[in-house]
Amino acid sequence: MTAAISAAGASHIVSLFRQLALLHGERPAYEWQLQECWQQASWGEMMALVERAASALIRAGHCETDRVGVMARNMPEWTIADLAILAARGVPVPIYPTSTLEQTRYIVADAGVQILLVGEEAQLAVASVLLAEGLIRQIVVFEQQDVSGDDPRICSWASFVAAAPDQPALADRASRFSRDDLFTLIYTSGTTGEPKGVMLGMDNLLAALALHDQRVMVDERDRSLCMLPLSHILERCWSYYVLYRGATNLYIRDPQQAVSVMPQLKPTLMCAVPRVFEKAMGTVQAKVAAARPLQQRLFGWAMAVGARQAELRNRGEGGGWYQRLCYALADALVLSKVRERFGGRIRYMPTAGARLDDKVNGFFQALGLHLKYGYGLTETCATVSCYPDQGYVMGSIGLPLPEIEVRLGPDNEIQVRGATIMRGYYHKPEATAEAFTADGWLRTGDAGAIDAAGNLYFTERLKELMKTSNGKYVAPQRVEGVLAQEPLIEQVAVFADARHFVSALIVPRLETLEVLARQLGLQAQSAAELLAHPAVVKLVEQRLKAAQQELANWEQVRRFTLLAAPFSLENGELTPTLKLRRKVIASRYAHEIEAMYVE
After folding, report:
1. Which of the four CATH numbers 3.30.360.10, 3.40.30.10, 3.40.50.980, 3.40.50.300 does domain 7-267 have?
2. Which of 108, 117, 180 is nearest to 147 (CA)?
3. Is residue 97 within 8 Å of 107, Cβ to Cβ?
4. pLDDT in tens, 266-291
5. pLDDT the model gives residue 191
């Protein structure tokens, strides 16, 4: 990349990408799968589509600063639409493709979205309800399907962008590009479960790109697998950084296919959440456990040698001749073969969004697959801190990016200040005020520590908002409030933080349950015996399934344990205002909770 094309001196992401298109021309910008075959598009083709889409928005009545929703799985059209909205000086509003009708309705209404770009049939179904309700006025469908029907308010992406770009209109809007423009309005859940629209400016995005230049290395030879949802700030900013550095972005719609396509695509980079690596490690370990004893011992020896090599590499040392010989042998016999499952060309994999267990981290470092572990929030335009290439400290969440200031406030709360910090929450001045200290530092709600070398450590969440190991936020009060409406449930406490799904401790309403038990012809000598009956467990499972229809899939309780004794003030499980003391409950029922996560 030439020194003249830098995010540090840019005024707008679209202007920056137009310069890059002139520089890269026919070089590939992205690849995607179409009917089992992988297609490739150049920088010139990508920006031509961006200009056509931006003109289409203007023709459709889009005005500057209008909010436009994007609700789709990962595909090139997502990024093209994102840039097109910005080229028309609009504000993109990403919506998770798996969002429920209720969640989508709230975001669309709060943001004032009028045009909604959707990916496939599932998102079209949700959008069609909002169109019928009058909340939006137009739907554009990315999927190359025949959008049948006589409703002119619904059209395909292909027909939407078919006309030639209106260069004068685009030039007119580009003349007002500014770092003060909003880059996005992206919704994140609060502790009450009501989404908050995080306002990130163009200055935030460009600062994030420039700061990453000082910490991570990406160049034109790299190929990055885009598998996290683009509606998440981590993948969206990372994908922009990949393109900004002239690398190729590889789009896959189903993240479950990531590992299976890696040998074919041979990516050098992949941004992922810890849960991806937890599952991958479990798969490898299961195969080792099923192998012959000699193969198990060979794997164990190779991993020990690999772990030693990872330590030396982290210190910038090569090791003695014996270590080099052992590593060459271990790599040839074992480690390289495991790396081939990831394509064999991985340089590093950024990971954030949840706690990464040191055992998982160490496992991949020993394989020679460097996990660049980090920490950030939507409110910080993703990255606050991450591992350097060398000198990282296991157990930490890395060093803050250059020019990002981090301090510890009361209760050791991690507080952040810098050019990437949000402007505030849309239409929520009180929530915005609460998010910042009196002297202007962002309060993360997370407790941590900082060592003498400046490494940042995460210890616990001060706010009760939970985040699964898949990087999804779960507001426990919201889930509990939904479940408590089921007549069969008296009390419920849910758990999900750093776990890969939501579980629950449920205290049934015994009177109601006893009536149902008699109707089913069940007999029991005690409440505990009744709750353990398979028919009762199945009944509660059915009621839960029905009660959770309005929750997103990642919010839904997948496993539960029935308790005979209610949570009480006397046992310290409830506050004087009858709120759950979650930490007390988690400690008292630690065995039951852990049992729900046994595979």
Report:
1. 3.40.50.980
2. 117
3. no
4. 999 999 988 788 888 888 887 888 88
5. 37
